[in-house]
UniProtKB/TrEMBL annotation:
Signal peptide positions (record): none
A GO CC term attached to the entry: cytosol
GO MF term set: hydrolase activity, acting on carbon-nitrogen (but not peptide) bonds, in linear amides; transferase activity
Protein's UniProt keywords contain ATP-binding: no
This protein's name: Putative glutamine amidotransferase
Key words, A-Z: Glutamine amidotransferase, Transferase
Organism domain of life: Bacteria
Length: 239
C-alpha cells in the first residue's frame, strides 16, 4: 500500500496537530495546506484531510455581519477562510475522509450552510475558553448512542478539554450533532447519513492536546481516521 498522505490546514500550533495525527507511524506523510503556500492543488496528492484550529470564521461567511461586534477583528484571517472553504469543496468532490478540530468544526458547519454562535458567554452559556490564567478548561460531554462518534469511542459520555469561544449554532445541511456539553453547546458533528458518503467527523475539543492516550475521545478518533484514510487508498487502488 502507498504511504498515507494526509493534508492538514496550516495555522496556529500546526506542529502539535501534525505530531498527533502522525503519531509514531512511519507510513503517514503530513502535507501542510495553506494560502501562504498557494498549494490548494496539492489536495490531489492527499488521501484524507485534517482541518485544524485557529482563527474565528468571519461572520460574513455565514450571513451574520452584525455579529462582528461580538468578535475581535485581530482574530480573523479572511484569506484562510477563503482558502479552506475552497479546500473543503475540493475535498468533498474527491470524497476524501475528513477530520475537523475546533475551528475545523466551525468552518465545516459554515461550508454546509450552518451558522455560528460568535461568543458563547454572550449567548448565556458557560465560558468554554481558556481559564483566566491561561490554563485549559475541561468538561463533560454527552454522546448520541446512535452516532458514529459513539461507534468509534464506545462511550455515551466523556471528558474533554475546551479552548473555544465560538460554536455551531444552526447545523449545516446533511450534518447532525453527535455530542453536546451539559449547557447544550455542540461538541461534535458528523453526517446525518453515513451510508456511502465519505467519513467526516468534526470535534470541538482538541484531541491533539490531551495527555491521556487511553481517553477514547483522543486515541480512538485518530485511529478511526487513519483507518478511513487507509480504506480510501485501498478503494482507489482497486478501482
Amino acid at each position: 500500500m502507498s504511504k498515507l498522505t494526509i493534508g492538514m490546514t496550516d495555522g496556529r500550533m500546526y506542529a502539535g496537530y501534525a505530531e498527533w495525527v502522525a503519531g509514531v507511524r512511519d507510513d503517514v506523510v503530513i502535507m501542510p495546506l495553506s494560502y501562504t503556500r498557494d498549494n490548494l492543488m496539492d489536495v490531489n496528492r492527499c488521501h484524507g484531510v485534517v482541518f485544524t484550529g485557529g482563527e474565528d470564521v468571519h461572520p460574513s461567511r455565514y450571513g451574520k455581519p452584525e455579529f462582528l461586534e461580538y468578535c475581535v477583528p485581530a482574530d480573523f484571517d479572511e484569506r484562510r477562510d477563503e482558502f479552506e472553504l475552497e479546500l473543503m469543496h475540493q475535498v468533498q468532490a474527491k470524497q476524501l475522509p475528513v477530520l475537523g478540530i475546533c475551528r475545523g468544526l466551525q468552518l465545516a458547519n459554515v461550508y454546509f450552510g450552518g451558522t455560528l454562535i460568535p461568543d458563547i458567554p454572550t449567548w448565556g452559556k458557560f465560558n468554554h475558553a481558556k481559564l483566566p490564567g491561561g490554563g485549559e478548561r475541561d468538561h463533560a460531554i454527552r454522546v448520541d448512542p446512535h452516532s458514529l462518534l459513539f461507534a468509534i469511542t464506545g462511550h455515551k459520555d466523556g471528558w474533554v478539554n475546551s479552548l473555544h469561544h465560538q460554536s455551531a449554532d444552526r447545523i449545516g445541511e446533511g450534518l447532525a450533532a453527535a455530542a453536546l456539553s451539559d449547557d447544550g453547546i455542540v461538541e461534535a458533528l458528523e453526517r446525518k447519513e453515513t451510508g456511502m458518503d465519505p467519513f467526516l467527523l468534526l470535534v470541538q475539543w482538541h484531541p491533539e492536546r490531551m495527555d491521556d492516550a487511553r481517553n477514547p475521545f483522543m486515541g480512538a478518533i485518530r485511529e478511526r481516521f487513519i483507518n478511513e484514510v487507509k480504506n480510501h487508498i485501498i478503494a482507489y487502488e482497486n478501482h
